[in-house]
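Hi X.,

You mentioned you wanted examples for the new student's onboarding notes, showing what a folding record looks like when two proteins sit in one file. Here is a clean example. The first protein comes first, with its sequence line followed by its structure tokens.
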Amino acid sequence: MNAIKKFLALSVLAVGVALPGAGFAQATVDHSKMTMPKTAAMTDGEVRKIDKDAGKITLKHGEIKQLDMPAMTMVFTAKDKALLDGVKIGDKVKFMAVNDNGMMVVTDIQQAK
């Protein structure tokens, strides 16, 4: 009976040692097939309307690639109302926008050079 217990103990130990190694072999990743996330870039736009009290800005803009959004004119919410202080209607701008739970938010806006 002692020999059976020793055999079972060694068997369990051997399986315990072998399984984690097998798990690592299956968890290898082929990094050559990984793609980098889309990098956010400034988008060209033109200021059409500003509502500083509501913190909103209407921009006619080019394609926003990181949001898969075509060129159009739309209303954005400013992340910080102070962003709207440096622009006026008709200004050519470059801006950064994000989708915050379905709301398009301008996080940065600068005069185009």
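Then the second protein repeats the pattern, sequence line and then tokens:
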Amino acid sequence: MSSELYPAEPFRIKSVEFVKMNTREERERIAKEAGYNTFLINSEDVYIDLLTDSGTNAMSDNQWAGMMLGDEAYAGSRNWYHLEETVKELFGFKHVVPTHQGRGAENLLSKIAIKPGQYVPGNMYFTTTRYHQEANGGIFVDIIRDEAHDSTIDIPFKGNIDLNKLQKVIDEQGAENIAYVCCAITVNLAGGQPVSIQNIRETSELCHKYGIKMFMDATRCVENAYFIKEREEGYANKSIKEIVLEEFSYADGCTMSGKKDCLTNIGGFLCLNDEELFLAAKEMVVVFEGMPSYGGMAGRDMEAMARGLKESVQDEYIEYRVKQVRYLGDRLLEAGVPIVEPVGGHAVFLDARRFCPHLTQDEFPAQALAAQLYIDSSVRSMERGIISAGRDKATGKNHYPKLETVRLTIPRRVYTYKHMDIVAEAVINLYKNRDEIRGLKWVYEPKQLRFFTGRFEHI
């Protein structure tokens, strides 16, 4: 392993959590009882947990020290003012509204910014984001570049918005019928793909030409900044902190899940520049989240988030973070395992269509692959395909996304390179025996966000 290609962890481990490995027979029983849904498997029955990077981060000694300084006042907590100051410094927006996590911010933005029947163009859907948009009468339109839907294409900024697609929506629907444009940095379901500064700037210029606001899904904005530093001309010598600030300088606001790049286990916020929208959000946050000075978070959580944000923009940390994920992807590519290319910033996405060519999309290949990986190795991953895509709200028919993937999501500062080796070996071994993976069918299908609690059985 080259230290130049894959830098060592820029930290020392001060506390550990013991885990166990169940037998294969036990995992077969556990998977069946969980309805072959990895979300329904107990954490204690998982050896390496790659279900998500949301809230699964390891906090630093500085963050834990900050937890002891929690001001749990119902209003006016000093930790809130520290968090607000930090967000304004790093993101540059005028106003900040705290929420319990990212989907709380999505809910607020959707309620205050969408009128029923308006369109919300974005660079690929995300599950909770689209749910809140549609629940508030919005109509999602995918305007990501076509290459993002092809797992085999390796280009630097696969998450970019297609400006021609955006212009077409404006021309056909009228600017007044567009609530706002949502630009995700990075694009989760495309494989954690980044968006270039040039594309962010050009998208902003097109939006503002027509009086349309642009909001960022900023959940993995620091990872996006690293890719800009690595790949975009003119940014190699800029700091991550400088790039993050420039990313947001072109936007009117953002939603943020603090459970990712803020290096915490809970929390989020909504940023806005518009005074009228800010006042509306402050009124709404009281209804759904809590006071505008805590938004569903404890004081200690806000302190941990403020400190975590400052740690996240350290150049050494984010280089290690992205390259640990890349290490796993490179090992799988070397073995011929089909994955989404290029490797993104938070996860390696297995291409379930190419991994399981014997299964049709209606046989849920990604769900079946995730379940079998757990049975074989006690590695927990998650489906990102037809199950996550859900059904069309108007017709009730399944959405059929072009990407049918299994996400191996790497928590921040939790696992070592040796853990990545174990995951790689498990996936490679399963790929050699891929013909044995059996398709699934519904036993219980929830009406909303069905991938969280749905149950399946083998066909």
